[in-house]
Amino acid sequence: MKKGVPTASTVPTADEPTVLVIDDDPLTRGALSSLFRSVGLSVRTFASARELLEHPLPTVPSCLVLDVRLPRLSGFDLQAELSRLGLKIPIIFITGHGDIPMSVKAMKAGAVDFLTKPFRDQEMLEAVTRALERDLKHRREEQSNLDNQTRFESLTPRERQIMSLVTAGLMNKEVAFRIGISEMTVKIHRGHVMRKMGTKSLADLVLIAENLGIRGQEK
């Protein structure tokens, strides 16, 4: 690694971010571990892809710093295996033998960055910061979707029906005619839906319905 001036990560620290380093060279693992710990990041190191797969991934914002050339299971093989398992974690590839086709392959498969050794410390820290921010955003979105699903399940069958129809663009009177109740009753149910789903506008409710896949899906 080329030396630079390390700067602290700008990633929010509500949960302690963790960097997973996978490289068969102990000197590289040690240098990267020291670099990341110097800016307050938690680090776990592995000598092979197989070793990583034997351990659960962190439940906090995290990323992989992954050597392309590893024994038995390569970095690209590990990327494909994690994808197959549905495990989404940002990856920064590192290699001493990089080329353009290799980097294009990595980025097309979803890698955050592709760094060729020797790289500057600051270059690595910036890549890791981007990766951790991406993972934090993904985790927040997943938690938000889970919360919305839980709220949706708290609705009565009638409230779910009305949520589906109003988010599809139907006016209250149209919903009332469609399901055979009064417009006032629709308004009352709609108010309950807004309160239970924690929304203040129809636009917010439409976005949630879209993410849940129930917009216009009358049941």
TrEMBL record:
Keyword Transferase recorded: no
Protein's UniProt keywords contain DNA-binding: yes
GO terms for MF: DNA binding
InterPro entries xrefs: CheY-like_superfamily, Sig_transdc_resp-reg_C-effctor, Sig_transdc_resp-reg_receiver, Tscrpt_reg_LuxR_C, WH-like_DNA-bd_sf
Residues in HTH luxR-type domain copies: 148-213
Transmembrane segments: none
Modified residues (4-aspartylphosphate): 67
GO biological process: phosphorelay signal transduction system; regulation of DNA-templated transcription
A Pfam family it matches: GerE
Residue ranges of domain Response regulatory in the record: 18-132
Keywords from the UniProt entry: DNA-binding, Phosphoprotein, Transcription, Transcription regulation, Two-component regulatory system
PANTHER family, per the entry: DNA-BINDING TRANSCRIPTIONAL ACTIVATOR DEVR_DOSR (PTHR44688)
Protein name: Two component transcriptional regulator, LuxR family
Organism: Bradyrhizobium erythrophlei
